[in-house]
Amino acid sequence: MFSPEGTLYKVMALIGNYCYLNILWLVSSLPIVTVFASTAAMTAVMKEWSHQEEPPITKTFFLNFKKYFFKSSMIGILQTIVAILLVGDYFVVWQMDGVIIKYGLFPILVLLGLLFLFISLYIYPLLIDLDLPMSQLIRKAALLTITRPATPTITLMVTCLMIFLSTFAKFLPILCAFSIVSLVNYQVTKRTIRKAEQLVI
Length: 201
Description:
By secondary structure, the chain is mainly alpha-helical.
C-alpha cells in the first residue's frame, strides 16, 4: 500500500509537494519585495508539473526566482503603483458629498479594479509561458482580460473559496492555499493561451 508505485503513496507525495511549494513561496515572500519573484518561481514549478515532469522543487524554484527576478519585480512595482492609485481613488470618491457623482464614479472604479486584478492574474502565467517583453506581456494580459474574462474569474472564485475555508481551517494558507490557487490559475490560463493561439492560426 505504501510502495513507491502505489496509488496512496503517489497521492501523499503529491500533497506533500504542494504543501512544500506553498511553504517555500511563503518563506521566499517574507521580505515582501520578493513576493513577485516568488510568485513567478512558483508558477514556473507549476509549468514543469503540468508537463508531467518531477524536477527538484527547491532547485527549480530558486533557478526561476533568479531568472525572473528583474522582470517580475518590475511588474510588481507597476502593480503596486496601480493598486495604490486605485485604493486612493476609492477613498477620495467615497468621501465625496455629491451622491450622483459618488455613486456614478464608484462602479467605474470597481470595474477598473476588476480589470487590474484580472490582468494581474493573467500576467504571471504569460510571463512563464511566453517570456515576452514587459510591454507585450501587459498588452496580451489586457487583451485576454477583455476577450476571455472567464479564466481569471475561475481563479478568483477558487481564491474566495480558499479564504472561506481558511476561516475554518486556520492552517490552510500555510499548508497549501497559495499553491492551489497558483495551480488553478496556471492551468486555466494555459488552456486559454492555447485556445487563443489556435484561433490566430
